[in-house]
Write a structure and sequence with these properties.
The protein is α+β, with helices and mostly antiparallel strands. The protein has helices at residues 4-17, 40-47, 144-152, 158-162, 173-182, 196-215, and strands at residues 23-28, 52-58, 61-66, 71-75, 80-86, 95-101, 105-111, 117-121, 248-252, 255-259. A hairpin with a 3-residue loop joins β6 and β7 (105-111). The protein binds a DNA duplex (14 and 14 nucleotides) through residues 1-3, 6, 33, 60, 75-79, 112-117, 129, 154-156, 160, 163-165, 172-175, 253-256.
Length: 265
Amino acid sequence: MPELPEVERGRRQAECTLVGRQIVRVAAADDRIVFNGVTPRKFAAALKGRNVVAAHRTGKQMWFELDQPPHPLLHFGMTGRFHIYKDGDPHPRFWKVVFTTDAGDCLCMTNMRRLGRIRLQDDPPNEPPISQLGADPLNDLPPASELVTQLARRRSPIKALLLNQSLFAGVGNWIADEVLYQAKIAPHRLASNLSPCEVGMLRKKLSAVIRKAVEVDADKHKFPRTWLFHHRWGKVRGAVTSRGEAIAHTTIGGRTTAWVPAVQK
DNA sequence: CTCAGTGTTCAGTG
DNA sequence: TCACTGAACACTGA
């Protein structure tokens, strides 16, 4: 479930298992779609024997800083995640890459639907896609005044804009819907028509939702019960919020959007 | 059997 | 050229 909080969880998992350790072995699945711009065997050869200095994340992109380039860049797509287990245990189904450390731990990325990407770059923060990403709402959300200026020149529905990674890196479908619900803004409103007050509320909720989700390590069971998240897919028809308000479904920005007409104006 | 889906990219349009 | 939209991508589970 990889939006910013889930990817941050992955970064922390990588931090625990890889950082400060040496990669003694790399297994790379024969998948020319997920491995992008590098063959699986070249990827494995480049990483074997390297020491891991840090695990970084911007938006939904994650990369490991090694003691020398090139560095691996991972994107989970819709179905990617990490698994941690001991050396010798079987690889999980849909495994794409497994890093084994000198401590005997395995960090494995699985990717059932193959929309994830694994790349190798010399300078990840200064190369696409990371160099083209907008602000990461967890670390450097722009001041409200700046957001007001930016949104004023945008003509697309606010929901579509929230999904645009060059503006807010890391926001995905459920976060966009959650933030708009809590900010009481209808998803089809044009960004340029939002009042400064509404932009301020949007910014506040964007920060709050992401902060909370990261705080509970992206464990959905620990998300507050008042969040739209728990109710959006509850029933295909007749879904309601925790307060009994009707949830409507529509398509905006090419994605299914859940919203509450009684609350969002 | 059909289709939606927690994401990104790219061709096409205005 | 820019901003934006919608389809394509891959494939499982409902």
